[in-house]
Specification:
Elements: E1 10-16, H1 22-33, E2 38-41, E3 49-56, H2 63-67, E4 71-79, E5 81-83, E6 92-95, H3 103-111, E7 115-119, E8 128-129, E9 132-133, H4 134-139, E10 149-162, E11 165-172, H5 178-189, E12 193-203, E13 206-207, E14 212-213, H6 214-219, H7 222-227, E15 230-231, H8 232-239
Helix pairs in contact: 3-5
Length: about 240
């Protein structure tokens, strides 16, 4: 498969649909643009929707730079149910009663997770142990010790409380697991929780409002998709580099 001379080098902002893996989106863009050199910056679980940065052609050289930037997510956590994956795609392993929580109690739990703190990555993650991704070990029913990682929350908001659901927004550092955040807040509240829905709204200076949808990628002409690729100079200007 040869790269088309009309295909620019740079970054394509995609609004990922639910039910797809990040690799599914990469494969789709490779197929539509007839180019092998496509990568993604920061995996989004199939459950999640929203901003996925794809690097195209020579854009793959700045993949690590883009992955290191802060992210903004909006999500919903469901209290009273703990799952094997910390999100709604897993098996329910425990159910607990959700007490009538005061807003102050909820805020106190959220406040424990702001600024710098250590987060233990979930078993269902792409982190490797002895070269094997943890999610593969999890599929075999294995649980291994995970090294807690230093993460940072710059700000958060509690957007809606309609127990057992809580909607929230969080701006966090790279390497942050939002489903673990939901799980840990549920633990703090004493009733458990899992991540019910998630949307990545921003990554660095890039906003999902400017992204092309998966349906548009499937239906538009390849030349049209190519015009949506931000050139490397554009990316540099947007990042303030």
């Amino acid at each position: 498969m040869q790269q088309s001379s009309a295909t620019p080098d740079g970054v394509l902002l995609v609004d990922k649909a639910a039910g797809m893996t990040s690799h599914d989106v990469v494969a789709l863009v490779r197929r539509r643009l007839q180019i092998r050199k496509v990568g993604h910056c920061g995996t989004l679980d199939p459950l999640a929707t929203g901003l996925l940065l794809l690097t195209v052609g020579r854009g793959t050289k700045i993949q690590d730079l883009l992955m290191a930037e802060d992210k903004e997510y909006s999500g919903t956590m469901m209290l009273g149910m703990i799952t094997s994956t910390q999100d709604k795609d897993g098996e329910v392993i425990e159910r607990r009663e959700v007490p009538p929580l005061e807003e102050e109690t909820i805020r106190t739990a959220f406040e424990k997770f702001r600024g710098d703190f250590y987060q233990t990555p979930p078993m269902v993650s792409a982190i490797k142990q002895a070269g094997v991704p943890l999610y593969k070990l999890a599929r075999q029913g294995k649980t291994v010790e995970r090294e807690p990682r230093l993460v940072h929350i710059y700000r958060y908001s509690i957007d809606r409380v309609a127990l057992p659901e809580i909607d929230f927004t969080v701006v966090c550092s790279k390497g942050f697991y939002v489903r673990t955040y939901a799980h840990d807040i549920g633990t703090e509240l004493g009733c458990g929780a899992h991540l019910h829905s998630l949307r990545r709204v921003k990554s660095g200076r890039f906003d999902v409002a400017n992204a092309i949808t998966v349906d548009e990628i499937k239906n538009a002409e390849p030349s049209e998709i190519a015009t949506r690729v931000l050139s490397l100079p554009q990316v540099s200007r947007m990042r303030g580099a």
